[in-house]
Input
Amino acid sequence: MGVSSILRLYMNYSRKDILVGLVIVVVVVLGVLLFKKLKTPKVLSTPIPQEVSFKNDLENSFKFDIPDNVKTVELKDVSGGNGRAIATQTEILVDIEDPAVGYFYQGWLENGGSLISLGKLRIAKGGWLLEYDGSKYPEYKKVIVSLEKVFDSSLEKKILEGSF
Output
């Protein structure tokens, strides 16, 4: 097929035929591109889980700043309540409801079942507070807050606990 025969074929088609042909080609190309796009698996971004910390909340409640370089542990409520606390080697900051009349909160350190009483927590601006010297008990890693009726050396009811 020579150039002259191609020109004769081209001359036999009207502008309308050429336009229809171009539209068909464009529709086919768009269809192929759309099919490829639909067939490509979509990658959904998964949010990275972040540890929920209430350290800032407690610092704001107590108007107290715990330096970032101080080792802290979050105490979780093990009693089914909604108490929460942060402990360092020198204090325990507790956000919990007031105990019933005749009861109090007591702080403890535990090491393999051996308990040391740190004393009664006192009411402080924003919650409950206990200051202690953890350097005296380096082997004791678990911190416990209990609800007590009698101030003695036996733990009555665990409320919060966490380990360094």
In short: The chain has a mean pLDDT of 83. The two ends are 88 Å apart (CA to CA). The chain has three helices and nine strands.
